[in-house]
Amino acid sequence: MFVQVEDSSRRIHVQVARQIARKILSGELDEHQKLPSEMELCEMFGVSRTALRESTKLLSAKGLIESRPKVGTTVRSRSNWHFLDPQLLDWIQDLANTETFLSKFLGLRKAIEPEACALAATYATIEQRKHLSVLFQKMVQAAENFDYAQWTENDHQFHQTIYLATDNQFYIPFGNILSTIFKLFIDRSAEGGRFCIEEHRGIYESIMSGDADKARAYCQVLLNDDNQRLANMIN
To answer: GO molecular function, one example (predicted)?
Structure first.
């Protein structure tokens, strides 16, 4: 079921936790399924009991498993998983259901990002507006050169800056902790398609001019764009 971990710059208990987490996130380990005993897991991974217990603490903190005396360790129901945990988002990458996961993420963006753009148009500082200007110019250059790598990097920073510019402490963590999933999403949705530069231009110019209603509307157009092939995967 599992493979032994190797010495690396990554701590042993994190390697163990990652393997177990990916089995859970991929569905290979079902909800409410009981994990092998502590002794069996130690043998499978080739780790000490201390390292294993540190890994189970990590997984428990993310809502993936729970341990009970005389019962053992079982996988918790999906409703308990902390999907916005940055480490969990990193572990979920390149699993078989990544495309479906990203389509759900698009649904979340549709729900909150238009309002973030409207807030940024109202509250962005001079420095944040200057930073958006630099990023947008880089996006234009990337689109002209069909440079997907540069587009992905600058598009990610563009949207992250918008969240930071909302002056709302509940939006700011969203922009920070989802940097990994933003990059993955933008890369998957842009590759092979157009860059949606005009939609981004509308958002950028609306924020620069302080027009909250237009910033919100342009963001809705961007996220409803059928060119983003992930949009067609929303259930």
So the answer is: DNA binding
- Calculate Rg over the CA atoms of the chain: 21
Give the CA dihedral 122, 135, 101, 77, nearest 10 degrees.
-60
The answer to whether 75 and 29 are in contact (CB under 8 A) is yes
Structure tokens at 22: 């990916």
> What single DSSP character describes residue 37?
P
Domains of the chain: 12-85 (1.10.10.10), 97-233 (1.20.120.530)
How far does the chain reach from its first CA to its final CA, in angstroms? 32
Q: How does the average pLDDT of the chain come out, rounded?
A: 86
- Any residues with CB less than 8 A from the CB of 169 and at least 6 apart, and which? none
* Residue 71 burial (CB count, 10 A): 9
182 close to 159: Cβ distance less than 8 angstroms: yes
> What is the value of pTM for the model shown?
0.75
Quote the CA–CA distance of 163 and 219 in Å, as a whole number: 13
Counting every residue written for the chain, the total comes to: 235
Query: Among all chains, which residue has been given the structure tokens 């499978």?
Result: 44
Q: Are 20 and 58 in contact (CB under 8 A)?
A: no
Burial (Cβ within 10 Å: 0-12, 13-18, ≥19) of residue 146 = exposed
With a CB cutoff of 8 Å and minimum separation 6, the contacts of 202 are 214, 217, 218, 221, 222
pLDDT in tens, 147-165: 888 988 899 899 999 999 9
